[in-house]
Amino acid sequence: MEQQPTPAPAGGVDTAVETIFRIESPRIIAGVARIVRDVGIAEELAQDALVAALEQWPRDGVPDNPGAWLMATAKHRAIDLVRRRERYARKLEEVGRDLSLSAPHHLDEPADPDDIDDDLLRLVFTACHPVLSAEARIALTLRLLGGLTTPEIARAFLVPEATVAQRIVRAKRTLATKGVAFEVPYGPEREARLGSVLEVIYLVFNEGYAATAGDDLLRPALCEDALRLARVLAELMPKEPEVYALAALLELQESRAAARTGPDGEPVLLKDQNRRRWNRMLIRRGFTALGRSSAVATGSPGPYALQAAIAACHAQAYTYEDTDWRQIATLYGLLAARAPSPVVELNRAVAVSMADGPGPALEIVDALAGEPALRDYHLLPSVRGDLLTRLGRTAEARAEFERAASLARNERERALLTARARECG
Q: pTM of the full predicted structure?
């Protein structure tokens, strides 16, 4: 006799549902979008599946494969919607076998050898369509692919939440009214959208690597999705150096993940990390991808190649003291010239502090004090506090760490910064 799921207390199940949905929602939205051809409707149907789970799982128990349950529920509602609306009749015929609930994971074979049979990638390229502004493309894809909330996206962009909310609503409306196809484009159109796709993958990984909010420093599922997409793109576009460079960067960054938190999930600073816990397989993959990027590059290195080179400097240092900080500072200088931003300049200041001392670095940081984009950025006072500590100006450093803690929205980071403030006496 088949064993039935055991009902659980509603409160615990509700938390489980929300956690599972946050992990699975990008795949659900992507799978449903292939049926309804509208990312806005797909997101609504995914939310309907969430509501159904919140109603049924406390009563019937959490299914053995909750992700598949949510996907099947959302697809069933999508199929019902398509069947109810005559204007979707042609689309219903086109998706054919994909509509069968008896084989929910079966996909049509790609008609072109250059096609990508991956709904998540279709979702990324659709959300990065040129009819949208660059800001809207990134915000929408972070919402749909990364499952990020509007406040989290606003934090990543360093812009007001209302601005991000408007971008997302307008983006979904534009895609619907323009009839943008749910597909990975071919040829020149694919090349035109590549920059936005790379930036989206990069930002999704960053949110997983250092969560802007919440109780955990890391969100591994986001890192995994971003890394997988970067690897697939690298296979798809073997002549694009920046695609390989992004893959290299993410491999090298992910290699440190296990050492970045302690037993209780607390952050571990780079200088205190146990480098024996760094994943050497990922480091090798990163160096291989970086070598391929260099092999196909025809001009000066792009932003992802420069960042990957910086990550490589860290990866090849067996101890913190062995790090070639002068080379890292030089690379950050090149990156600041190639893709200038206040955050890059702040990172350059950290490298300069290690290469030339805290004094010159503090001058760089102080020059950033008036940058509007960094007004509420907790790492600015955090870096300044560290530099002041090294200069022996502990009272000033304490104030900077306290300000950084007040700005941090991630609980783990806030605790670390509060502890650093206390250490200043």
A: 0.73
